[in-house]
# Entry
Amino acid sequence: MSNKNRQLYDLSDWPLVNVSAEFMCFLGNDWVAQTERLLAQNRPFVLIYPEVNVAAQPDESSAAVGESARDARAIIAKWLKIHRNDFSQRCRGIVLNASGETASHLVSGLERMYGVPVKAAKAEQTMNLAKEIMGIS
# Structure
């Protein structure tokens, strides 16, 4: 099932962009299309990811028939390889709702993947950290 009618990004607090809690269930092509629309805004932003549980990998039933989570990651990685510069010119950083071992595991990998600074914070600190990255008081 495609996620074309579901929003990956909540833009209501722009430039603080909240990522859907179901981000791991989005198809690679849906992620690409919605990310390209986000970049088309041509304005700086910061992404705020909800709590991430590394142990809870999406099962194949959460992706559409014919596209596994691995396929989606491959599509996203290929897109980022081509568009990383455009992405990093607009995205000022990523804030993860994560702490401890989960956070340190994710931060370095995401920084390499996206080419932007990634910070981890507890839930109650994510918005303030995102505002700080954007220079908002």
Summary: The two ends are 41 Å apart (CA to CA). The chain has four helices and five strands.
